Amino acid sequence: MQTNLKRRAFALAGVASALALGGLLTACKTPPTATVPGAVVQAGADQPPPAPREFRAAWVSTVANIDWPSKQNLTAQQQQAEAIAILDRAKAMNLNAIVLQVRPSADAIYASNIEPWSEYLTGTQGKPPQPWYDPLKFWIAEAHARGLELHAWFNPYRARHNIAKSPAAPNHISRTNPAAVKQYGNFLWMDPGEESASKQTLDVVLDVVKRYDVDGVHIDDYFYPYPIEAPNAAGNAAALDGKAAKAELDFPDQASWQRYVAGGGKLDKPSWRRDNVNRLIEGMYEEVHHEKSWVRVGISPFGIGRPDRRPPTISGFSQYDKLYADAETWLQKGWVDYLSPQLYWPVSQTAQAYDTLLDYWIGQNTQGRHIWPGMFTSRIGAPSRDYQPQDILQQIDIARSRPGAGGHVHFSMVALMENRKGLDDQLMAGQYAQPALVPASPWLGSTAPSAPKVSAARGGRLLKLNMTPGKGDALYAVWTRYGSEWRFSVVPAAQKHALVTDDAKLGEPNAVFVSAVDRLGNESERVKVWGK
């Protein structure tokens, strides 16, 4: 992810906590549909329409304190307050997932026996929050209490960021296994050719999957590093501009390469580098699902594909040749559950056009996995190449118009916290006017949960729903009909109850249906709990 934008002030005001915790169903007046939220459906039917489905997420970056925490060395209570503000804003906007960066640079924002505490929490690598608490456990609990998924985001190979200030902790990989770490410009980088480095990344991911109730694991675009100009420059900014670094500094992996050749390896060096990354991706996919079958594996690679496959109008940086990321193979081998290619360019930028690139990745998706593109929402209000809200609204509409794309991810949450140029207001009045369920992942399991056990009792101008959670229930989908108009709401299973209010104009609801939804998005039979 890009970290070189000027950060705006972290905005906490205006977040409505009651929306997240009060249990009151603020049902949307826009009738839902199966795959395109906001589309109009036929009113007056005896049965409610299909549930709206769309992955709506935002990346929450911890590196460089981009999104959370807003600065280093906040108290535990201050960190928690900022996390709750983010989650409340996500809930109020009808997002349904947060992708939280838990490993910025071979470190951890959670209690780990493998890697040290991140300096982005306390200002000192290896130092835990004070008073002590486990941030990841806190984030998961608070996200699930609001009906939001929490995906743990790992940087796979970066060992030290160029803006890091505190010394490496004794248990950081640069000190415990220095042979596996290389200096590249102002960064330290784990060498993907070193088996011990890839093993540590895989061990870290599996440790989180085993010990935490995450809904997904997610890795970003930093495989081999973005090339830099010799001797030192940031390479990812040039890549976004569609340029190549001049006089590139080669990654210093001669030792691992020569060991491979001496062992009888037959691949050329670029193919060997891609194979190193491929083996990590394949192993991660297999091992995560061996541990927990419902945890989805996602990757957000750089958005431009292989030079020999890309559309003729597309040009620019090649992740295949430069980052040694063969994302097309990962899709076609089924080594991901969702791909979020970073399509960080407007439709009008022909050489990297958002719509053309989205169609490209959909075309590469022969296994039918989820394609949820990443959008550069933080460009809104940026010092240069400023986006307008309409750019993001247009990209959402384009994704909705493609049957092969079922959602999107905002980079990053800070832009939504600040409601830059009124984007949040426009989303909540339009594309996000109603909640949506995350699309199901039938290749991981398609057995529907049992129908929910629900009772309803009316008191005053409220209808109280009491749900008895079944095994595996994550959410309850609730349809309420006022007159001939259906409205859709989502209730976290842990909440166990909800209040349905009368409409100011249409009066009390004449029908209410409820279904259970499991961790994979599978939906139960609907149960009519109110109405004739």
Automatic annotation (TrEMBL):
<feature type="signal peptide">
    <location>
        <begin position="1"/>
        <end position="20"/>
    </location>
</feature>
<dbReference type="InterPro" id="IPR052177">
    <property type="entry name" value="Divisome_Glycosyl_Hydrolase"/>
</dbReference>
<dbReference type="InterPro" id="IPR003790">
    <property type="entry name" value="GHL10"/>
</dbReference>
<dbReference type="Pfam" id="PF02638">
    <property type="entry name" value="GHL10"/>
</dbReference>
<protein>
    <submittedName>
        <fullName>Family 10 glycosylhydrolase</fullName>
    </submittedName>
</protein>
<keyword id="KW-0732">Signal</keyword>
<dbReference type="InterPro" id="IPR017853">
    <property type="entry name" value="GH"/>
</dbReference>
<feature type="domain" description="Glycosyl hydrolase-like 10">
    <location>
        <begin position="54"/>
        <end position="385"/>
    </location>
</feature>
